[in-house]
């Protein structure tokens, strides 16, 4: 019996309306509440893109094994599983995504791994960098609000390690 | 090192909006881990305007980097000349001061005859084809082989494929035929992104390359090693004579290198040599005998100049 081997993709969604907030302080983003995405939205966006770019054959290949295991609307990173034979189809389809629901965005793959463990470690590292970055920006703005960094680290670690 | 050798430069760079849009794109490239970017200026018809490209001063975006270290990106300028008429002389040589003010020179042929001409004779670094639309000619082995022999690279721009689905089809088809004809050699992948959202991360592009018929190693070379070769090709084209001899002023020599012009023995204390040029040979093999010979040669010539 041959084992079904998987690939785990750690990806980041970058939105057009939020990614450049830090450098251009003059054009502050509108304060309207942005629509948060769920795991389900990301899943259907990827599946649609596979349908458009790889057709029925592509959807047939991936349908059995694809699943979006995790997506965090706060840090905009997610983890998905796909069988090893077809990961390039999914990855290619993700590259061609320009919009999820109503928001313009792009998807970048941060890590491709054979086990979920490595993806989790990579995700934790990424989260830590993001938290440090946000704190630096807050310092530069002169925010005096003190946030316990270690607590945030612990939170993100627990969340990511809970993925099964 | 990842390279993006085609970032369209705004047509009206003075407009603040276009400037921030360009900055957005460069910021995103830095975030993705690119280390070299080339701003592209496309010219159709005559070359009469001076180089419009102004690089950002000491580009670093320290507030954005997580560890607080400065991330820098090297900026180059590039001109793409659209060649429509084979009989017209476009002045594409390093003697032309407008051409030599750009770091990289690319040519975009519009028919088969010009394509052959560009591959075979023109002094350019990149052959750019508009792959988002249907090519007016087949890419043939003959001229392509010639271009590979001369070290000229072919360019695939991926942004049209992200923009809409019709050009995606065309691009995949054109890119696959280019990969087949070149056997995956001498290809670079660039963005040509008009907006920041059309850019993609380096490894996403590597995966895109596998869709276009390359393997992963080849695709990675397309955005790293091959692009470096293009930049080096451009440097040798601009700064050397027939890619063999380069000139440097004597004043640029370090004190321990002054023996090369023989000034440590006879001319100590003299400053006659300042400003004069010395010839430095670019040699592949270092042969001691030859080196001595050359040293003598240089000495003799210097003596002659003095007398």
Automatic annotation (TrEMBL), chain A:
One of its GO terms (biological process) is tRNA 5'-leader removal. GO terms for cellular component: multimeric ribonuclease P complex; nucleolus; ribonuclease MRP complex. It holds the Pfam family RNase_P_Rpp14. It catalyses: Endonucleolytic cleavage of RNA, removing 5'-extranucleotides from tRNA precursor. Its EC number is 3.1.26.5. It is found in: Nucleus. Keywords: Nucleus, tRNA processing. One of its GO terms (molecular function) is ribonuclease P RNA binding. InterPro entries: Pop5/Rpp14/Rnp2-like, RNase_P/MRP_POP5, Rnp2-like_sf. The keyword tRNA processing applies. SUPFAM superfamilies: Rnp2-like (SSF160350). The keyword Nucleus applies. Component of ribonuclease P, a protein complex that generates mature tRNA molecules by cleaving their 5'-ends. PANTHER family: RIBONUCLEASE P PROTEIN SUBUNIT P14 (PTHR15441), RIBONUCLEASE P_MRP PROTEIN SUBUNIT POP5 (PTHR15441:SF2). Belongs to the eukaryotic/archaeal RNase P protein component 2 family. This is Ribonuclease P/MRP protein subunit POP5. It comes from Rhizophagus irregularis (strain DAOM 197198w).
Automatic annotation (TrEMBL), chain B:
Its main location: nucleus. The keyword tRNA processing applies. GO terms for biological process: tRNA processing. InterPro entries: Pol/histidinol_Pase-like, RNase_P_p30. It is found in: Nucleus. GO terms for molecular function: RNA binding. The keyword tRNA processing applies. Residues 287-307 have a biased composition (Acidic residues). SUPFAM superfamilies: PHP domain-like. Keywords: tRNA processing. Residues 262-275 have a biased composition (Basic and acidic residues). GO terms for cellular component: nucleolar ribonuclease P complex. Residues 260-307 are annotated as: Disordered. Belongs to the eukaryotic/archaeal RNase P protein component 3 family. PANTHER family: RIBONUCLEASE P PROTEIN SUBUNIT P30, RIBONUCLEASE P SUBUNIT P30. This is Rpp1p.
């Amino acid at each position: 019996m041959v084992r079904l081997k998987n690939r785990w993709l750690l990806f980041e969604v970058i939105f057009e309306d939020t990614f450049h907030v830090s450098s251009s302080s003059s054009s502050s983003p509108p304060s309207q509440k942005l629509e948060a995405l769920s795991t389900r939205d990301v899943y259907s966006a990827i599946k649609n893109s596979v349908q458009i770019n790889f057709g029925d054959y592509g959807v047939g290949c991936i349908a059995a094994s694809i699943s979006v295991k995790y997506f965090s609307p706060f840090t905009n990173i997610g983890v998905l599983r796909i069988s090893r034979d077809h990961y390039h189809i999914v990855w290619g389809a993700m590259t061609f995504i320009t919009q999820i629901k109503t928001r313009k965005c792009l998807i970048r793959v941060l890590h491709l791994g054979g086990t979920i463990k490595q993806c989790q470690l990579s995700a934790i590292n990424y989260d830590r960098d993001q938290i440090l970055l946000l704190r630096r920006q807050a310092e530069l703005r002169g925010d005096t609000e003190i946030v316990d960094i270690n607590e945030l680290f612990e939170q993100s670690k627990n969340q990511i390690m809970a993925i099964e | 090192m990842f390279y993006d050798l085609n970032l369209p430069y705004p047509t009206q760079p003075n407009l603040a909006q276009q400037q921030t849009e360009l900055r957005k794109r460069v910021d995103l490239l830095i975030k993705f881990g690119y280390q070299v970017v080339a701003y592209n200026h496309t010219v159709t018809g005559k070359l009469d305007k001076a180089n419009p490209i102004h690089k950002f001063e000491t580009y670093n975006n320290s507030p954005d980097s997580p560890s607080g270290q400065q991330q820098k990106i090297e900026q180059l300028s590039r001109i793409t000349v659209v060649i429509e008429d084979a009989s017209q002389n476009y002045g594409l040589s390093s003697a032309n001061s407008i051409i030599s003010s750009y770091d990289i020179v690319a040519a975009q042929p519009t028919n088969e005859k010009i394509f052959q001409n560009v591959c075979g004779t023109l002094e350019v670094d990149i052959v750019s084809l508009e792959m988002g639309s249907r090519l007016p000619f087949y890419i043939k082995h003959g001229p392509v082989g010639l271009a590979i022999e001369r070290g000229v690279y072919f360019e695939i721009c991926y942004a049209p494929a992200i923009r809409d689905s019709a050009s995606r089809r065309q691009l995949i088809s054109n890119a696959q035929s280019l990969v087949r004809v070149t056997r995956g050699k001498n290809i670079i992948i660039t963005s040509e992104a008009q907006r920041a959202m059309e850019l993609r991360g380096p490894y996403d592009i590597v995966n895109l390359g596998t869709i276009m018929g390359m393997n992963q190693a080849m695709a990675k070379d397309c955005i790293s090693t091959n692009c470096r070769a293009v930049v080096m090709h451009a440097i040798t084209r601009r700064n050397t004579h027939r890619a063999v001899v380069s000139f440097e002023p004597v004043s640029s020599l370090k004190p321990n290198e002054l023996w090369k012009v023989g000034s440590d023995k006879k001319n100590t204390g003299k400053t006659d040599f300042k400003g004069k040029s010395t010839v430095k040979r670019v040699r592949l093999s270092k042969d001691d005998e030859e080196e001595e010979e050359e040293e003598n040669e240089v000495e003799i010539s210097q003596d002659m100049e003095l007398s």
